[in-house]
């Protein structure tokens, strides 16, 4: 599958590895893929993100991702669903951080994949979420009969998968529908 | 936060989507909390056997799940 990645898509994958290393994370997740996408210039995905104004809100996006990471990777929707059960996630996070240090819930317990993409990239593992994003990107490219997998397919994959990255993108006006509109409609 | 309040109110109206999402979220939260606690126990010198006994699972199960930490 990886031989079909364009240069831009490969840059996103290696950029995500760097993001993860810089953050001292256990593994590469969908948030790292999104941050790497926001770093790209002159690609299809960067064009789409700029057209939707998301490139100018990079700091907001970074902050939202960091917040979700601090909550152990729970999305805002999940946090609200738990509030409906009377569970205050913020309070749990604060207590855990009091006992175990700031960021205690961030980046723990993420299952790493050591086959496929994980093996391709070396010793650092991808979370199941991140691996699923790349597989979705392949399926989206195939469905569109695009011959190679570009970074725009990774962006589309992020918008279609429920999770932190998809939720943060949607909050900033980047959904499958809006991305397809700026990319594929004349 | 009004959205959270809405959801909290809707939890009572038995919308399965909200209930199922809450269950999934709770499961994820439990996994994260378990990882934090196991790591802390290991740092304090607990054996896998001791951790497994507290969690009510086999030593092999806990080691397989958290052994790389």
TrEMBL record, chain A:
Keyword Nucleotide-binding: yes
TM region positions: none
GO biological process terms, semicolon-separated: proteolysis
Domain of life assignment: Bacteria
Keywords: ATP-binding, Hydrolase, Nucleotide-binding, Protease, Repeat
Xref: Pfam families: Clp_N
Name by which UniProt lists this protein: Putative ATP-dependent Clp protease ATP-binding subunit
Organism from which the protein derives: Streptomyces aurantiacus JA 4570
TrEMBL record, chain B:
SUPFAM superfamilies: Sigma3 and sigma4 domains of RNA polymerase sigma factors
Domain of life of the native organism: Bacteria
InterPro entries: RNA_pol_sigma_r3/r4-like
A Pfam cross-reference name: HTH_23
Name of this protein: HTH domain-containing protein
Originating species: Streptomyces aurantiacus JA 4570
């Amino acid at each position: 599958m990886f031989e079909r990645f364009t240069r831009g898509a490969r840059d996103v994958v290696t950029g995500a590895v760097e993001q993860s290393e810089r953050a001292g994370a256990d593994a590469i997740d969908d948030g790292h893929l999104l941050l790497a996408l926001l770093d790209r210039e002159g690609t299809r995905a960067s064009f789409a993100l700029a057209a939707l104004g998301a490139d100018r809100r990079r700091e907001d996006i970074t902050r939202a991702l960091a917040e979700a990471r601090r909550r152990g990777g729970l999305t805002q929707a999940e946090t609200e669903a738990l509030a409906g059960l009377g569970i205050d996630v913020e309070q749990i996070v604060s207590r855990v951080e009091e006992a175990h240090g700031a960021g205690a819930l961030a980046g723990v317990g993420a299952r790493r994949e050591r086959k496929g993409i994980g093996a391709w990239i070396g010793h650092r593992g991808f979370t199941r979420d991140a691996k699923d994003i790349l597989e979705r990107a392949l399926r989206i490219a195939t469905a569109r009969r695009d011959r190679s997998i570009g970074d725009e397919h990774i962006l589309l994959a992020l918008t279609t998968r429920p999770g932190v990255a998809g939720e943060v993108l949607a909050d900033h006006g980047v959904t499958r529908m809006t991305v397809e509109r700026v990319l594929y409609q004349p | 936060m009004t959205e959270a309040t809405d959801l909290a109110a809707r939890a009572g109206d038995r919308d399965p989507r909200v209930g199922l999402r809450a269950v999934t979220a709770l499961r994820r939260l439990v996994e994260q909390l378990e990882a934090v606690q196991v790591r802390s126990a290991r740092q304090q010198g607990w054996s896998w056997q001791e951790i497994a006994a507290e969690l009510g699972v086999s030593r092999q199960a806990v080691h397989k799940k958290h052994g790389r930490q």
